[in-house]
Each structure stands twice: as structure tokens, then as C-alpha cells.
Write a structure and sequence with these properties.
The protein is mostly helical and about 200 residues long. It has helices at about 1-15, 25-45, 50-65, 65-75, 80, 85-100, 105-130, 140-165, 175-200. The chain has one domain. It is elongated and about 65 Å long.
């Protein structure tokens, strides 16, 4: 019964999560695709060749080494992988609260904390691959998204290590406070990710 409730909550969070994909490389790929799709129309109408910037981008993508293309492909997995910590950490908070009166939830809480703590660094790394390795971005929202995601990834890994070393502390006050902070950070991170894709008014009423 307990596990059924956890499973239902997990599925709901997975379906309701915001996909915080970074916009830098995606924008560049979209610009190249749009320029290529518009090139035949412009050539037929005005016999104009694609701009030098577009030709340079196409050439660079075509000549990029296999390893760089692999890293770029892995970065595109960020929007998919990020849903796991988005679901696991809030679910761990839920079971930690319920488990204070129902000891049967302790194992579920340990599993969810470990799962969220191990997937958060993976999502963080893929986010860096997708967004590039710059320490500062022209877009303030992207900068916040980058570094808040980094903090969540490192914090999740530390949380998983804590559970492995002190498994009986999953329902303590300190653990509960950390899970509340992590869940709040994930909600803020989700808003910034949505703003990168849909604009800052994506949750406007």
C-alpha cells in the first residue's frame, strides 16, 4: 500500500515536471536549421547565397570531431535526465514527512534520496555539456540556471553520501530541512529552465 502511494506520486511528478533545457546550443542549431530551410527559397527568388555566418556554422558542424559530436549529443539528453531528480527529491521529502509517523516509509525514503542524489549530478553534467563551459552567460536567467543546477547536483551527491553513511538519519529534523531546501531549489530551477524555453512569462495567469 505504501509503495503504491509512492509510485503514484512518482508518476505524477514525472508527468508534471518542467523540462529545463538550456538554450545556447539549441538556439544555434535552430538558427542553422532555419537558415538552411530558407536558403532554397531565397536562392529561387533572388539568387542570393546563404550568409557567411551560416556557411561557417554548417562547415564547423560538419567537420567537428566524433568525440565533440558525442559530447554534444550527450548534452541533448539533459532535458530527459533532469526529470529524475525533479521527481525523486520531492518524493523523498513526502516519504520523509510521512515516515516520521509510519516507520515503514524509511526504506522508501532511503531509496528516493539515493536515486535523486545520484541522478542530480548526472543531470548537472549533461546541463554543462548542453549549455557550454562558460562560467558566465550574457543571459542572467541562464547564469542562474547553470549555477543553481550545479549546486543541486553537488548537494544531491552529498545527500546520497550522507544516507549511505548515516542511514538511520533519513527522518531526522536536519534531513527534513535539507530536503525542503532541495525541493525549493528544484522548483526555482524548474522555473528558470522553463523561462529559457518559453520566456519569463510562461507561468503568467
Amino acid at each position: 500500500m505504501h509503495w503504491a502511494a509512492v509510485a503514484i506520486l512518482f508518476v505524477g511528478l514525472m508527468l508534471g515536471g518542467v523540462s529545463p533545457a538550456s538554450a545556447h546550443k539549441a538556439h544555434e542549431r535552430n538558427e542553422v536549421a532555419e537558415a538552411l530551410s530558407e536558403a532554397p527559397k531565397s536562392l529561387s527568388s533572388s539568387s542570393a547565397a546563404p550568409s557567411p555566418e551560416t556557411q561557417t556554422k554548417v562547415t564547423e558542424e560538419a567537420r567537428s570531431p566524433t568525440f565533440e559530436r558525442l559530447l554534444d549529443w550527450l548534452g541533448r539528453l539533459h532535458p530527459s535526465i533532469v526529470h529524475f531528480p525533479l521527481a525523486f527529491v520531492p518524493a523523498a521529502l513526502f516519504t520523509a514527512v510521512v515516515g516520521r509517523r509510519r516507520p515503514g516509509f524509511q526504506e522508501a525514503t532511503r531509496f528516493l534520496i539515493l536515486a535523486g542524489g545520484l541522478t542530480a549530478p548526472v543531470a548537472m553534467l549533461l546541463g554543462w555539456l548542453d549549455g557550454g563551459w562558460s562560467l558566465w552567460d550574457k543571459d542572467r536567467i541562464m547564469t542562474v540556471h547553470r549555477w543553481l543546477g550545479t549546486a543541486i547536483g553537488i548537494g544531491g551527491l552529498a545527500l546520497a553520501a550522507w544516507v549511505l553513511v548515516r542511514p538511520r538519519h533519513v527522518h531526522g529534523n536536519v534531513m527534513l530541512a535539507v530536503l525542503v531546501a532541495m525541493t525549493a531549489a528544484i522548483l526555482v530551477q524548474g522555473w528558470h529552465g522553463g523561462a529559457l524555453i518559453h520566456g519569463v512569462d510562461h507561468l503568467a495567469w
